[in-house]
Design goal:
This protein is mainly alpha-helical. It is built from 6 helices and 3 strands, in the order H-H-H-E-H-H-E-E-H.
Amino acid sequence: MTAAQRRARAKTEFEAYMAACPTQQLMTTLGNKWSTMLLLALARGPRRYADLAREMPGVSAKMLTQTLRLLERDGFVARTVTPAVPVQVDYSLTELGERAIPLVEHVRDWAEANISDVHAARARHDAEAQVAGR
């Protein structure tokens, strides 16, 4: 087997591992730009689509819909349709979504407490890379 074939095989095996990795699967959902913000908004109680859109003015309608569908598909959010004129759609956390909130809050709290250190490290790295010509 050539080195290129070994690398290709290793890449395929690693990609299969990553696809099956529970942490990677969860981070794909929670790492989405709007997922954690939506989960935290829904932690305060059920919301209608328009309410969520108002709470996050930077999200497009398409992205809000996609993110809600992703969270619903993964079991974090429940969508309830109430027949009315017009139809009323409410979103709320499921039990699984509620169990994820402490994790999301912990990450948020850590980020708020440590982001200045992250920014300082980035600045140092970028300055060193510029001096080194990278």
